[in-house]
């Protein structure tokens, strides 16, 4: 590069580029009360995927989401990304969306336009679209794809003698020859803002929807001898949109499968990945095995060498190394120490903190508890608002009565205590270190360390009672 003594102006060095994401539409074809861009694929709203890709190309302050239908909900769902919002009060078409954003976008040299309902777009492709546009010094550049079935998409009509584009024709307006064109408009563009806003007022609403179509800019610019070019994606699936329920499900499958593939590359075995639902932000360590029909959701982190067995649903949980989660376990906001064994059919609710090597077994429900290292609650138990020390055995059918109808109270069980089966621990209550609670006891008072507490009526045995009863009955029948 030749050296210059003059400080170059910022626009000469680096053109100022914004990204506009069209997200104001209602999504009529989904037949939903929720706005289209908040429908989820891969565990995240469609719009959140598009913003995530955009953020890897330009900073948040240069990203403008054009919102309209249910604008407050859309804004709230993605506001933490720090992007800028533009309100399109009435949704009068994709061209109108850009008219509304004119004031904020006109100060940029170029604007990349993305669709809030097409979540598979990658930062690499956005950059390819921008760089092609800059290299060609074009007024408008569209990203296109070759689809087996182009039905429903705008078709790209190229000029005969050059690479340039003559027009985009929407599905409803194609003639029989154009219907056969398989190169479709992705709905992603880069514009030179001077060309876009210099001609955007020429858009008309002479179409079946009576909307301003942004796609008509191709014909308008091309007619005024401005350069309109198209660049094809390598991966046609990147342009797919979620306009219908079937398309949404297809997007979800693709995102989930991509996540499974990525985890497998990182050393995780996932049997029958097409049956597993794993959210985008989930992390899993090497040599962990995921069995069929497992859901791992939210911000869950699973360590190495674990086995997550079938039909478990794990949300926002932190699982250490070498943990076994047996079939049918439900976990939400739980922490599981290394080497623990959970399930089958355990229900770990928020605030469950299971220590290293702990066991939580069949039909055990926990909430807001700490279960110390090596402690066990293996069968048919409810533990809520409890602090349980190390090496404690909680017998089958034990219940912490944490709720008096108004307030929640705490149960404390100290290290090495042994809780017999079917104990009822009425909180607030404490069982001291190494103490025993006899089976079927109702414990309402403190159990001191090293003691035995019996809280049940003494057994009575009536010798010969059953025989006498039988004999009496036999006499009556004679
Ligand atoms: C659009 C293109 C079509 C292309 C397809 C690719 C037009 C006229 N057609 O069709 O050529 O093949 O995308 O997916 O642009 N939106 C607004 N404000 C509005 C209207 C729409 O923000 O007034 C938003 C929508 O929320 C959506 C995006 O713009 O995120 C695209 O609109 P949509 O109605 O889905 O256009 P398509 O019919 O898919
Ligand atoms: Ca669409």
What does it look like?
- This protein has 478 residues and is of the alpha/beta class.
- The protein folds into two domains: 17-239, Spore Coat Polysaccharide Biosynthesis Protein SpsA, Chain A (Alpha-Beta Complex); 268-453, Hexapeptide repeat proteins (UDP N-Acetylglucosamine Acyltransferase, domain 1).
- It is 21% helix and 29% strand.
- It has eleven helices and 37 strands.
- It has a 23-stranded parallel beta sheet that branches. A seven-stranded mixed beta sheet has the order 5-4-1-6-10-7-11, sandwiched between helices. Strands 30-33-36 form a three-stranded parallel beta sheet, with no helix packed on it.
- β2 (40-41) and β3 (44-45) form a beta hairpin.
- It is elongated, with a radius of gyration of 32 Å.
- 43% of the residues are buried.
- The model is unreliable at 1-8 (pLDDT under 50).
- Bound molecules: uridine-diphosphate-N-acetylglucosamine and calcium ion.
- Calcium ion binds next to loops.
């Amino acid at each position: 590069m030749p050296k210059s003594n003059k400080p170059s102006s910022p626009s000469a060095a680096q053109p100022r580029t914004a990204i506009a994401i069209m997200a104001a539409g209602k999504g009529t074809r989904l037949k939903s009360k929720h706005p289209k861009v908040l429908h989820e694929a891969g565990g995240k709203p469609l719009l959140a995927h598009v913003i995530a890709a955009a953020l890897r190309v330009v900073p948040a302050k240069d990203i403008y989401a054009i919102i309209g239908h249910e604008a407050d909900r859309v804004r709230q769902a993605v506001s933490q990304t720090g992007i800028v919002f533009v309100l399109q009060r009435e949704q009068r078409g994709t061209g109108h969306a850009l008219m509304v954003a004119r004031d904020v976008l006109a100060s940029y040299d170029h604007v990349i336009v993305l669709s809030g309902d097409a979540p598979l777009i990658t930062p690499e492709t956005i950059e390819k679209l921008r760089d092609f546009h800059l290299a060609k010094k074009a007024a408008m550049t569209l990203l296109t794809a070759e689809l087996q079935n182009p039905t429903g998409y705008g078709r790209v009509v190229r000029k005969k003698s050059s690479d340039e584009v003559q027009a985009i024709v929407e599905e409803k307006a194609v003639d029989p020859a154009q219907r056969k064109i398989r190169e479709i408009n992705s709905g992603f563009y880069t514009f030179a803002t001077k060309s876009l806003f210099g001609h955007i007022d020429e858009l008309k609403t002479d179409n079946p929807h009576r909307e301003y179509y942004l796609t008509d800019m191709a014909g308008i610019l091309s007619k005024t001898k401005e350069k309109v070019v198209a660049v094809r994606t390598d991966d046609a699936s990147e342009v797919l949109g979620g306009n219908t329920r079937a398309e949404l499900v297809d997007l979800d499958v693709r995102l989930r499968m991509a996540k499974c593939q990525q985890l497998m590359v990182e050393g995780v075995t996932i049997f029958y990945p097409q049956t597993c639902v794993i959210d985008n932000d989930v992390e899993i360590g090497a040599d962990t095995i995921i069995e069929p029909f497992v859901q791992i959701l939210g911000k869950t982190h699973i360590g190495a060498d674990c086995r997550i067995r079938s039909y478990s649903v794990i949300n926002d949980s932190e699982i250490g190394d070498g943990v076994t989660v047996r079939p049918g376990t439900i976990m939400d906001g739980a922490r599981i120490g290394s080497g623990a064994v959970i399930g089958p059919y355990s229900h770990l609710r928020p605030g469950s903190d299971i220590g290293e090597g702990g066991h939580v077994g069949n039909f055990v429900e926990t909430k807001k508890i700490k279960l110390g290292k090596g402690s066990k609650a293996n069968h048919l138990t409810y533990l809520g608002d409890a602090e349980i020390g190390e090496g404690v055995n909680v017998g089958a059918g034990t219940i912490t009565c944490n709720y008096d109808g108004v307030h929640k109270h705490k149960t404390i069980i100290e290290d090495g205590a042994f809780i017999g089966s079917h104990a009822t621990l009425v909180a607030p209550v404490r069982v001291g270190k190494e103490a025993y609670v006899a089976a079927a006891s109702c414990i309402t008072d403190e159990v001191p360390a090293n003691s035995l507490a019996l809280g049940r009526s003494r057994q009575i045995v009536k010798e010969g009672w059953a025989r006498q009863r039988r004999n009496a009955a036999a006499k009556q029948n004679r």
